[in-house]
Amino acid sequence: MKFNIQMLTGRIDVIRTALSHLQEISKVSKEDFLKDYRYPASAETFLRHCLEAIFDIGRHILAKTGKVRLTHEYKDIARGLGKSGVISKALMNKLLEMAGYRNRIVHFYHEITDEEIYHILKNDLSDIKRFIEEIGKFMKKYADRENN
User: Fold this and answer.
1) Maximum separation of any 2 CA atoms in the chain, in Å
2) Which of 24, 60, 107, 132 is the most exposed place for a label (fewest CB within 10 A)?
3) What single-letter DSSP state applies at residue 67?
4) Which pLDDT score, from 0 to 100, does residue 148 have?
5) Residue 11, CA distances (Å) to 83, 105, 109, 122 in order
6) Which residues contact 111 (CB under 8 A, 6 or more apart)?
7) 60: which residues sit within 8 A by CB, 6+ positions away?
8) Domain spanning 5-147: which CATH class is it, in words?
């Protein structure tokens, strides 16, 4: 099993950059966030970048480990990562929520509200950070096995 480390680290960099921007936007007051259309639009874009990169990483890991049937369904990717031990069950449950939200952003974008995006900024960014941490631990274990 050979992972494309360049692809994985590139996607992690995308997540880190977008997460940094999201954290900066999250410092804006709710009143200012809702008043200026640029804040919700930017936040939605950065959130979508995070979600796409998360599921790209997950799909790649599942494809290379062969532990779970390869899928393009985002919720199946979340389940596969959790069931194969790549991520914790708690994070798997959060990724299941993220998968649903990713689909809403892409397919039901007209239903997403600025208040909803603000709520995510204030309450859910730690889940994205936790994904980076857990994938990092998985990749370290993989690298240690490859070097021994």
Assistant:
1) 56
2) 107
3) S
4) 61
5) 22, 19, 23, 23
6) 104
7) 3, 4, 7, 8
8) mainly alpha
Q: How far apart are the first and last CA of the chain?
A: 14
Tens-place pLDDT, residues 61-87: 999 887 666 667 899 999 999 999 999
CA–CA separation, 88 and 82 (whole Å): 6
Helices (H), 2-124: 5-25, 30-35, 38-65, 74-83, 89-107, 114-123
Predicted structure pTM score = 0.92
Q: Which two tokens stand for residue 35?
A: 């008043």
Predicted confidence band of residue 96 (pLDDT cuts 50, 70, 90): very high
**Domain locations along the chain:** 5-147
15 vs 140: which has the higher pLDDT: 15
